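Project standup — Tuesday

K.O.: blocked on the structure for the chain from last sprint. Re-posting the sequence here as requested.
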Amino acid sequence: MRPFLLDSCTLLWATIVPENLSIRAQNIINDADSLIIVSHVTIWELSIKMSIGKLTLPHNFLNEVESHGYTLLPTALKHFGVFRKLPLLHKDPFDRLLIAQSISEKIPLITCDPEIARYDVEVVW
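H.V.: unblocked you, prediction finished:
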């Protein structure tokens, strides 16, 4: 199985409005040979946005991520080591930590964010 890491927008679209995804992203996410990974960083970001009223999601959305067959990726010290070395091209610390995880774990990141593509990271869209 080939692993792929989802950013927060991709996770939301994949589970709520998959038609917003690119055809390539849809094909990868729906492919049985893909291991779809969601970072704890993404869960943290979405939780914050929900708690401050910037985002409304179904009640059990975050608890059901694994029920979609997605694998959770916790943060590790090696991710923060890469994070500290990243140039400040993107101001969003959550996205920068996802980039660090993608680089550290050698996992392509599925995202439509053009700022992320400015880093030396494999981006799929």
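K.O.: great, moving the ticket to review. The domain at 2-124 is CATH 3.40.50.1010 (Rossmann fold). The longest helix spans residues 93-105.
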